[in-house]
Design brief:
The chain is of the alpha/beta class and 210 residues long. It has a single domain, classed as Vaccinia Virus protein VP39 (Rossmann fold, 3-Layer(aba) Sandwich). Helices cover 34% and strands 30% of the residues. It contains 8 helices and 7 strands; from the N terminus they run αααβαβαββαβααββ. It has helices spanning 3-10, 14-21, 25-34, 51-58, 70-79, 118-128, 147-152, 161-170, and strands at 41-45, 62-67, 86-90, 103-109, 129-140, 174-188, 195-206. A 7-stranded mixed beta sheet has the order 3-2-1-4-5-7-6. α3 packs across α4 (51-58) and α6 crosses α8. It is globular. It starts with a helix and ends with a strand. Bound molecules: S-adenosylmethionine (SAM). S-adenosylmethionine (SAM) binds at residues 3, 7, 18, 46-48, 51-52, 67-69, 72, 92-93, 109-111, 114-115.
């Protein structure tokens, strides 16, 4: 099963599953790191059912929500049916369906460990930022819980923070920081007693002003 098939299948249950894996603290930290401002435009890459988007619209931003899974975006559309400030686009993190220099912020929470090439996805997220825009990625620290490949179709077992910093800089971002998000991700195996407790990093960088 591919990651897309997995998220198609769990789309209806994702909110409940996600609540068991990580808390709203991730979103609070991500939005605070970007110091988001009302009226600006943000992209939520690998948006799922809109965990990050929810915080952004509550802060008065417009959101372009991108996900590989049309099924999970349909769930999100139902959930946010009364919010006109969201534009939904099916697409891939390595080929984001947004023109360059378009958004003030790009966020990706727990998407990077699913993509084929994390450095290419980071370069794409940097591409869509306006000059002076901010990229915020929250994802898993490097870990050894192999069952997540099998059960959640994770492609990468988290990341070294030093690699994330290197990829941000290679994408042309400046003022790069990779810190602890201050919270963890916890996953109980579906089928055995394996239990993963994994740190979450919060990476930020700015596209140079024109
Ligand atoms: C772990 S979920 C996180 C969803 C949401 N950001 C959240 O925090 O609840 C990962 C999401 O990334 C999407 N995804 C995985 N690989 C992707 C890719 N290459 N391009 C776009 N979306 C992708 C999945 O379909 C899924 O919705």
């Amino acid at each position: 099963m591919s990651s897309k098939e997995f998220f198609d299948r769990v789309a209806r249950d994702w909110d409940e599953m996600r609540e068991g894996y990580y808390s709203d603290d991730v979103r609070v930290s991500a939005l605070a790191a970007a110091a988001v401002e009302a009226g600006k435009v943000a992209a939520d890459i690998g948006a799922g059912t809109g965990f990050i988007t929810q915080g952004l619209i509550e802060e008065g931003l417009q959101v372009i929500a991108v996900d590989q899974s049309e099924v999970i975006l349909d769930e999100m559309k139902t959930k946010f049916a009364r919010h006109p400030a969201i534009d939904y686009r099916v697409g891939h993190a390595q080929d984001i369906p947004i023109p360059g220099d378009t958004v003030d912020y790009a966020f990706a929470n727990m998407c990077l460990h699913h993509v084929e090439s994390p450095p290419d996805a980071i370069r794409e997220m940097a591409r869509i930022l306006k000059p002076g825009g901010t990229l915020v990625i929250t994802d898993a620290d490097e870990h050894e819980f192999e069952f997540l490949r099998e059960e959640h179709h994770d492609r990468w077992l988290g990341f070294k923070r030093s690699d994330i910093g290197t990829w941000f800089e290679a994408a042309g971002l400046q003022d790069v920081r990779v810190d602890d998000a201050g919270t963890c991700c916890e996953v109980q195996s579906f089928c055995c007693e394996d239990f993963a407790r994994i740190g979450i990093f919060l990476a930020t960088g700015q596209k140079p002003a024109a």
